[in-house]
Amino acid sequence: MAMRNFLQALVVLATGIGTIDTHAQTLTDPTRPPSGFNLAVGAATATEAAPVPLVLESVLIHPDMRSAIISGQRLALGEKIRGLRLVRIGETDVVLLDGSERRTLKLYPGVQKKPTQQAARLQPGG
Phi and psi of 40, rounded to 5°? Predict the structure, then answer.
């Protein structure tokens, strides 16, 4: 009787493992690259061919010096990135020059600063 119970338990266990294995095969790997992603060495993708835009990531203002981090590179006034010279560092933006062409990068490009109702009342004439 004990042997029969043992064999039944073994069959149930073996069947359960097979079921788990079947379910595990249907799961997708969350770390798997998306379809169409080419892992071949030297293969250029559409994003590699297009120039990556410059991004203002941080502004560092000290009494003695101002600098900005643009696309991972720390720059002081007068230094260049991709041929553009950093000519102005503000609290929330920087200005780059390429010859006579000015290019402004904003720290928060999608945000516009608006005074609150209380600030508007406190301003002269408000």
Answer: -65, 140
